[in-house]
Amino acid sequence: xxxxxxxxxxxxxxxxxxxxxQAGNSEFDESLIxxxxxKLIIDWYRYKPNIESDIANADLVISHAGEGLD
Length: 70
Fold this sequence. Notes:
two-stranded parallel ribbon
C-alpha cells in the first residue's frame, strides 16, 4: 500500500478534516487521493514561492526534513 494511502487512512481515523500537501517533484498519484479521501478535504500543489503561511496555519506539519536539498 502506498504511504499516502496509509497517511490518509490514519488521519481520517484521528478525526482530521483537511490535508494540504506540497508534493514537489515527487511521484504523486492524484487518483489515490480521489479513491481514498472520503470526507477528508485534500488540496495539493507542487511548489509555491513561500510556504510559511501554510506552516503557520497548520495543526500538524510532516516534513521530509530537507531531503534532497542542496
